[in-house]
Design goal:
The structure is a homodimer of 306-residue chains.
Chain A: E1 5-9, H1 13-24, E2 30-34, H2 38-47, E3 52-54, H3 57-61, E4 66-69, H4 76-83, E5 92-95, H5 101-107, E6 116-118, E7 120-122, E8 143-146, H6 154-166, E9 170-173, H7 176-202, H8 206-214, H9 220-226, H10 231-240, H11 242-264, H12 268-287
Helix pairs in contact in A: 7-9, 7-11
């Protein structure tokens, strides 16, 4: 079996990490790349995680067996429309977007019958962005969720799954709507809240704001790191996962209102019981080994000052 | 100048860390301890970060030059009332509570004229609790905020400040109300939100909840760690800092409502611009070196998956 030609559409953190990982494990015969910015394309070529770059997505995708979309999700539809005519029969379009139902909605209507769509989402990243931020080990030991529909060609699904496994990920299959609901609460709402509280703080009077920066180690700093993620990518995530995000945000707001009310009415019993029940889920995460994914677990953790 | 006798009222994370640090640097002639639980007292004595323990706070405080309150803030008033009659002239009461105006309000009315109150707040901690969780280095390189009133005896203030400096902290003086406002946004609201989102998640249907645990590395996990902090201590922080917390929570809610509205109305421009402005404050924190307090900074940070 010959190795596939792979096209990377988008050469930021995820695109460059994919390139590094594919090269490292020798998984492609040829890796082509496309990015909108000329500088990004040149940097990618200099670093060498792609073999060649093109000035259009269509040129990069032509002749590829697997095409990865690694760009903000708002661009998916027009990219798919652009490359569709030039794709070779049997080509597989896959992606790394954080929302999955919208990918199927965007691309399925224009998908050629001899081209396959395998939506994917590697649960991996850093707050860095750009072509210099990638590294081959980003996906090692992390989940990659694939959300094929019942109609998706099984060999195409297996091809994409094998590629993720070959670069070190654990592959999980899931319904796209369920994925979007789970990620709304585990990722999208936490990021929205982090952006929000950092925004609230930056509106404070200048003297208070300088003390906020000074004493940021008391909890706030963790939120600023999360809120340093790419604004365009996150804009698209919220627009693409609108339904699940608004649903989870409603629940979050109801619960926060209950806490606010308890504070206002000096209701210590309610506060204590609401603060206590969260320990179970923490324990489950530790039991599930999900806390160990962090390489620094086990040290004295000084981030939780108060 | 002879070394002071120090009493530690409360032998949890902060109390035990204080004991270890005071012992390590030889800063006391004698360290007495009190905790409500017999088991905690025995553990403290076994570990040896106190010289002796007593079954009452009054017994531990009698004869002490400096008395540290290291217990949930709801207990401060009754503790102060209990020990006041037995304190020796010139004794200094200080504390490590996360709210400062309420300490002054609670204790000042019953303070003897020959006893001094120096409210303090070390910006240091972990999500662990109990007498086995302390370590001498917890306060090294961390801020300790003291909030004396204009009436506070200056020698008492300097005695407490020197002790914190001797165990490695950077001491900062601040108005109590200003402290409470700054900590509301940097620490109390972040913790409230973390408790809240973990609570929202734990109310989800069982199958979704298990996937939330599985994919917690996508952002949620950081919140569960914060939400693992001691529920009683946090109950008291919110009750004690009610005014500033409710004020900051109102601002937070207004901003969150604006984001929610932008998502509902597909207003990508508003989302992108709100997500972009938070980068400035992040940059200020890095410039101020507050990001370096974390010993693991600089590694590939894999906590920001999405």
């Amino acid at each position: 079996m010959t190795k596939p030609n792979i096209a990377l559409i988008g050469l930021g953190l995820i695109g460059s990490s994919l390139g590094h990982a594919i090269k490292k494990h020798g998984l492609a015969q040829h890796v082509s790349g496309y990015a909108r910015s000329r500088k990004t394309r040149e940097t990618a070529l200099d670093i060498g995680f792609v073999d060649v770059v093109y000035e259009s997505a269509a040129a990069a995708a032509q002749g590829a067996d697997i095409i990865f979309f690694n760009v903000p999700m708002g661009a998916f539809y027009s990219l798919a429309a652009e490359i569709m005519p030039v794709l070779k029969p049997g080509a597989i379009i896959t992606d790394v977007g954080s929302v999955k139902a919208s990918v199927i909605e965007d691309i399925s209507p224009i998908l050629r019958s001899d081209v396959y769509l395998v939506p994917g989402h590697p649960i991996a990243g850093t707050e860095q962005s750009g072509p210099t931020s990638g590294f081959a080990e980003l996906f090692v030991g992390r989940w990659c969720v694939l959300t094929p529909t019942p109609e998706t060609n099984l060999r195409a699904v297996e091809t994409v799954a094998k590629l993720w496994r070959d670069i070190g990920s654990d592959v999980e299959f899931m319904d796209a709507d369920h994925h979007d609901m789970v990620l709304a609460i585990t990722s999208h709402i936490p990021h929205l809240i982090a952006y929000n509280i950092v925004g609230t703080a930056s509106d404070l009077e200048a003297d208070t704001r300088s003390d906020v920066i000074k004493f940021s180690a008391s909890g706030f700093r963790d939120f600023t790191r999360i809120a340093a993620s790419d604004p365009v990518m996150w804009r698209d995530i919220f627009l693409r996962n609108k339904r699940a995000v608004l649903e989870m945000l409603s629940r979050f707001n109801e619960d926060l209102t209950a806490l606010q009310r308890a504070i206002r009415h000096d209701d210590g019993d309610t506060l204590q019981s609401m603060f206590s029940r969260t320990r179970d889920i923490r324990k489950s995460i530790i039991d599930a080994g999900q806390d160990m994914a962090e390489p620094n677990f086990g040290r004295h953790n000084k981030t939780d000052e108060h």
